Amino acid sequence: MTDDSVSPGEAAADEAAAPSLELSGRVDDVFGRIADAARSASREPGELTTIVVTKFHPVSLVRELHALGVRDVGENRHQEAQGKAAETSDLDGLRWHFVGQLQSKKARQARAYAHAVHSLDRDSVIDALASDDGLVVDGFVQVNLTDDEGRGGVAEADLEHAVTRILGSPGIRLRGVMAVAPLDEEPRRAFAHLRELSERLRAIAPEADQISAGMSNDFADAIAEGATHLRIGTAITGNRPVAG
Predict the structure, then answer these.
(1) What pLDDT, in 10s, does the model give residues 94-108?
(2) Which terminus of the chain is less hemmed in, N or C, by CB atoms within 10 Å?
């Protein structure tokens, strides 16, 4: 976790929620494996931010996670994220991360609840998210590691353009890069390439040294290649309910 070295499952339970033993066990297991992977890579577990993605799960699960010490949660659909953020506004220290494709017409609304947006990949989204309203949202440039233009993310050739655009946009703090490992490539190789792109970004913005990468099945490879933010779903939350 980012705030301390205490495992979420060891944190005191919130009286407003009663986490199941199954969920508690999964949280402890995954955070334990993350810590092991960090140490294997000669890194400190406290360097990592683990975002639990609660897609399609009820708000009650978010409350259970909070009671277990989880403070970073994520969604990839604006309507779901907006609703859950509103319903959990009473939970102290809870940070919402938007990790999916964000429509430019919804970007301004996302500023009201998102601690960070991990999917900045178009000028229209960057411009819509920008604001001098006094709030600062963390932003990651999503990079497309494939040749498929239909996938989310900027093309590698456009990375510097996106970085410059964000740096000139009020109300957005550039944190680094984000990517999803292609299905047809070894994750470690993909994350090594993402690390190289992070170095390119830091040539323009040295302070933007964060890497959002790694999911339930490949987070160990991402950690080995310098990931700072992991996006973990089913390994912690279990199988997703059918979307309503």
Answers:
(1) 999 999 999 999 999
(2) C
